[in-house]
Design a protein that fits this description.
By secondary structure, the chain is mainly alpha-helical. Helices cover 58% and strands 5% of the residues. It has a two-stranded antiparallel ribbon with strand order 1-2. Strands 3-4 form a two-stranded parallel sheet. It has a two-stranded antiparallel sheet with strand order 5-6.
């Protein structure tokens, strides 16, 4: 067979380009550290790599103080108030220079926790320059990381980081959002709205009640998140206190460990392998992911109400909705929120499922996994910010609500047939087959007010019942919807 040479298309030559990887300041690879930095920046104080190292320093410093002040290790000197303050200042003054120095040490150690240990020991060695030659801090250098495995420091550091991110950043934003949804629910508690089940006209409700349902669901998830436990352990390489007992056999190491973990404000976990089991993290991340998914439901519902004209988007001066259609005001805040909630939930799901498993006494799958806690919360926080900004730019078109209701008088088939059933039970004659009769009247048809009132008038209902039904309109057939809004807390 004759060989046919492959044809390679002639590609246009591309001039050499500037390497964006070499640009200063560095260009962010991901959107959270680039385009959306402003919305998520507060999380950097808690869930970034420098934040992790700062918490590691915090744990190491407090461990030295704990051992010294409780006389755990024989011969260790007690620390003065000034010496304790000096140690703690290593944490509070942790800045860009400290980050750089720690990075330089890690290039040598090729071990992040060991780098933290050496960094702190440098400060102990330098203490006489600040506190005077008689300070005992250089003498307690070997209390740094005493009997600790890296995971003793890491698990406590991550617990402090996540607790800080949740309580100081994520929860306040989420609570504010739920409060704003609840306020909208109360504002529109009496606004009649044609409900749609399966996308079809259904029993009317109120806009306020539908918003209250979502606020109630979100609030319930927040209460679960607020009640989260943050666990920690300090018990050595395989959770046995082996090194502790070998070094200082007379110490009550379980008591030392428990009081130290509780001193950090965490819940002590007495039974672990080398790692704290991370079950508390899985529980928390599942709850946050569930909050995300309820919020996603709100975003899609609001988007739909916007497309129906129930909500009007208030244009922002100078903003562009479409590059080609000048009239458009797109619901971009809610669409952006949907995407970020999906990304966040996917990461949280992965964290929750991966972190509960560790081969035998330890593997390192949790190390890389936990470094993505920041992006997981970042995408959620960004979504919360977008929904809040989106909701603030909405107004309700009462005219659309009224016209939608007035075009669907057939929804009154439900109360009429229900009243016929009640009348039948009370002994009124002529009330046979109420559901079937209303089905024949209404299904697949559009009725007018006159059609419905004529039908009601010919049923033979008691006068008071007939009058009550004849006076009813789709807009007044909302049951207790407005009152149900009062179940919202706060």
């Amino acid at each position: 067979m004759e060989h046919v040479p492959e044809l390679t298309p002639d590609l246009p030559s591309v001039p050499a380009r500037v390497s964006l990887a070499d640009v200063t300041p560095p260009v962010a690879l991901g959107p959270l550290d680039g385009r959306y930095r402003g919305a998520v920046a507060p999380l950097v104080d808690h869930l970034s790599e420098p934040a992790l190292n700062r918490e590691r320093l915090h744990v190491e410093v407090e461990w030295v103080i704990h051992l010294a002040q409780h006389g755990v290790v024989p011969g260790a000197p007690r620390l003065s108030d000034a010496e304790q303050a000096y140690l703690r200042s290593v944490v509070t003054a942790f800045d860009a220079d400290a980050v750089a120095r720690l990075g330089a040490i890690e290039k040598v150690t090729v071990h992040d926790v060991k780098a933290v240990e050496y960094f702190l020991k440098e400060h102990l060695a330098a203490a006489p320059e600040v506190l005077g030659a008689d300070t005992v801090l250089p003498d307690v250098s070997e209390l740094v990381h005493f009997c600790c495995t890296s995971e003793d420091v890491n698990n406590l550091s991550y617990a402090l980081m996540v607790r800080g991110a949740v309580t100081a950043v994520w929860l306040p934003a989420a609570r504010a959002l739920v409060g704003e949804i609840a306020a909208m629910a109360r504002e529109h508690r009496d606004a009649p709205l044609l409900a749609r089940t399966h996308g079809q006209p259904a029993t009317p409700t109120t806009l306020g009640k539908e918003l209250a349902v979502l606020a109630h669901r979100l609030g319930r998830q927040l209460r679960r998140i607020e009640a989260a436990e943050y666990l920690g352990k300090l018990n050595g390489a395989t959770g046995t206190y082996g090194a502790h007992v070998a070094a200082v056999p007379d110490a009550d190491w379980q008591h030392v460990s428990r009081t130290f973990v509780e001193h950090l404000g965490l819940t002590w976990n007495p039974l672990t392998t080398q790692i704290e089991s991370h079950d508390w993290q899985a529980e928390l991340y599942s709850d946050v992911a569930r909050f995300n998914r309820v919020l996603h439901n709100l975003a899609t519902d609001v988007w739909t109400y916007i497309s129906m004209g129930v909500f009007i988007q208030i244009p922002v001066a100078g903003a562009t909705g479409s590059s080609t259609m000048p009239h458009k005001v797109n619901p971009i805040r809610f669409e952006n929120a949907e995407a970020n909630l999906e990304l966040s939930s996917a990461l949280l799901d992965t964290l929750a499922s991966t972190l509960v498993t560790s081969r035998l006494q330890r593997d390192l799958t949790d190390s890389t996994t936990q470094r993505n806690i920041g992006p997981a919360f970042g995408h959620s926080l960004l979504a919360v910010d977008n929904v809040r900004r989106g909701l603030r730019a909405l107004a309700v078109d009462r005219g659309v609500l009224e016209r939608d209701l007035d075009a669907n008088w057939e929804v009154l088939g439900e109360p009429v047939q229900s009243a016929m059933r009640a009348a039948s039970v009370a002994g009124v004659t002529g009330m046979e087959n109420p559901y079937e009769r209303l089905k024949e009247l209404t299904r697949g048809k559009r009725l007018t007010a006159a059609d419905m009132r004529e039908f009601i008038g010919g049923l033979g209902l008691p006068d008071d019942v007939a009058a009550r039904l004849a006076a009813m309109t789709p807009a007044t057939y909302t049951g207790l919807a407005a009152e149900l809004v009062d179940h919202l807390e706060g």
